[in-house]
Amino acid sequence: MKLSLGSALVGLAVAQASTVKYSAVTGYFLQDEDSTDASTFDYTAENFGLINRTYPADKHNKKHLTQWERFYHQVSRFNEESPKHVEYKVLFLGRHGEGWHNAAETYYGTPAWNCYWAELDGNSTATWADASLTENGISQALTANAFWQKEINEQRIHTPDHYYVSPLTRTLQTANLTFTGLDLPKGSAIFKPTIKELFREGISIHTCDHRRSRSYIHEMFPSWPIEKGFSEEDELWNGVLAETSGAQDIRSATALGQVFFGSSSKKESFVSITSHSGEISSILRVLGHRTFKLNTGAVIPVLVRAEKTDKKATATSVPWTAEPHCTEPPVSSVSACVCPSSAAPVTTPLATGF
Question: Signal peptide location in the record (predicted)?
Answer without folding.
Answer: 1-17
